[in-house]
Amino acid sequence: MTELARRTSPDLRATISQEELAALRTVLAGSALTPGEPGYDEACTIWNAMIDRRPGLVVRAATQADVVSAIHLARERDLVLSVRGGGHNIAGNALCQDGLMLDLSAMDQVTVDPETRTARVGPGATLAAFDAAAQEHGLATPLGINSTTGVAGLTLGGGFGWLTRKHGFTVDNLISADVVTAGGDRLTASAEENPDLFWAIRGGGGNFGVVTSFQFQLHPVGPEVLAGLVVHPYEDAPAVLRAWRDFAAAAGPDVSAWFVIRKAPPLPFLPEAVHGTNVLVLACFYAGSMADGEAELSPLRAIGTPIADVVGPHPYTGWQQVFDPLLTPGLRNYWKSHDFAEVTDDLLDVLVEYGARLPSPHTEIAFAQLGGAAAQVPADAMAAGRRDARYLVNLHTRWESPAEDEACILWARELHRDTADFSTGAVYVNFMPEDEADTEQVRAAYGDNFRRLVELKRKYDPTNLFRMNQNIPPTAPVS
Predict the structure, then answer these.
(1) FRET pair for 16, CA 20 to 30 Å: which of 85, 101, 259, 382?
(2) Checking DSSP bridges between strand 81-84 and strand 332-340, what pairing results, if any?
């Protein structure tokens, strides 16, 4: 069995005695849960309802020492070890079958130093908690767009959002991290200490250790920002998207202009007749002053004849949660993604064609704008390369019933296939579903950085203990 295929473990319940379990519990500041015990089901419930695995043991860590204890146990018993931060990863890598799940959700502290404009963030913190703490001081760092996402997984995969064009990827703002390695060593990773490990964790996912604390650079943002949605009828999509494309290509780094194709939810600012019909949504954000934003976003808002325009001043924390109602946990999700260096007419035509036949009311084509500050960092400066990507698409297929699985997954795979020729060939690792976990697709995601990642994997995790991720096997050929 290959390392990648090894998604199951010896059943820990059959290999650990009650005495050993009791001894483990005496050394943990947190807790250890087995199936059937209070808290176990909660710990094993993650965002993507398609993923159903049952760990033999859950260690809910409260301290770095708890993390060390869990790693030692997994290594000694040759168990599959999965790590849960926010439990939001599309591939469901927080959950393993029969092995040991290390749950970091209780390590959710966020401490902000407004003088140095830095934040110390625990691996269990969500984007909502981080944003709220930083905004008390009018500060923020680039994060994602769903506030229930975990900071840890987002960051380790690269991280992007509304502030990326102004301030880079999330990892571009990482100053240091405390890491527990596969050998149980406690290291600090930064530009000064263990710089090779620091290079690897900035985009290399959970392949190199368990991060128990992140330190981020913060930037003045808000507390009010100019942002909002402009909703267009779907029949206008071809013309509106070409105008959007021209606007986005010329926009400065303070502007982030995305589009979403979906069925209109029953939002109060939309006429009832529009609810449930296909619409094109332009979502825009301005990272500078309100007055400058009004001027810079006005050409985007002047495109076509929208059904609704609700662009205006919003609390930054509110805007960061604006898509939360569409991304609640408990539904079945399957994603496919591409990076693009440019947006051609042919690409837009394919997206509009598939958008006209969305397979479920919850499915959307989300097209994000990158570039700006993120493009100014050399591709080999850290594991998160992809600096030539100016746009990214998330084919976010989402539905309610297992009976819909086949149709929804097929739609996403066919659209992904039909847009591949327009892409750079790279992909954002946090958007890779479970069926993209093979080495060649991971290699493509990292491009020229893959060779160095394999070398560092051999140094920091030679037995591939940390393999429940978009895995970089230490045995992978690098030539």
Answers:
(1) 85
(2) unpaired
Angle at 20 between CA 78 and CA 6, to 5 degrees: 20
3-class DSSP state for residue 38? coil
Edge to edge, the sheet with strand 186-190 lists 110-113, 118-121, 210-217, 174-180, 186-190
Continuous segment of H or E residues that includes residue 279 = strand 278-286
| Adjacent-strand bridge partners of 399 | 332
Please report the pLDDT score of residue 60 as a whole number: 97
The DSSP code for 264 is P
CA angle 221, 225, 227 (to 5 degrees): 135
| Residues ≥6 apart with Cβ < 8 Å to 37 | none
Q: What is the mean pLDDT of residues 113-132?
A: 98
CA distances from 394 to 61, 87, 369, 429 (A): 32, 19, 12, 12
- Name the residue type at position 113: D
Question: Residue 87: its pLDDT value, please?
Answer: 94
Beta bridge partners of 84: 103
Give the pLDDT confidence score for residue 478 in this predicted structure. 77
Please list the alpha-helical segments (H only) found in 150-236.
151-156, 164-167, 195-201
CA–CA separation, 74 and 277 (whole Å): 50
DSSP H or E stretch at residue 439: helix 439-446
Residue ranges and CATH numbers for the domains of the chain are 12-103 (3.30.43.10), 110-220 (3.30.465.10), 224-435 (3.40.462.20)
**Share of residues in the chain with pLDDT > 90 (%):** 92
Question: Residue 393 CB: number of other CB atoms within 10 A?
Answer: 26
0.85 exceeded by pTM = yes
Nearest to 130 by CA among 321, 288, 275: 321
As a three-state string, the secondary structure of 366-380 is: EEEECCHHHHHCCCC
- How confident is residue 439, by pLDDT bands cut at 50, 70 and 90? confident
Helix (H, G, I), strand (E, B) or coil at 315: strand
Please, what is the end-to-end C-alpha distance for the chain in angstroms? 23
pLDDT of residue 462 exceeding 50, the answer is yes
pLDDT value, residue 1: 27
pLDDT computed for residue 13 by the predictor: 60
Which residue type, as a one-letter code, is found at position 380?
A: D
β-bridge partners, 60: 31, 103
Q: What is the DSSP string of 109-134?
A: -EEEETTTTEEEE-TT-BHHHHHHHH
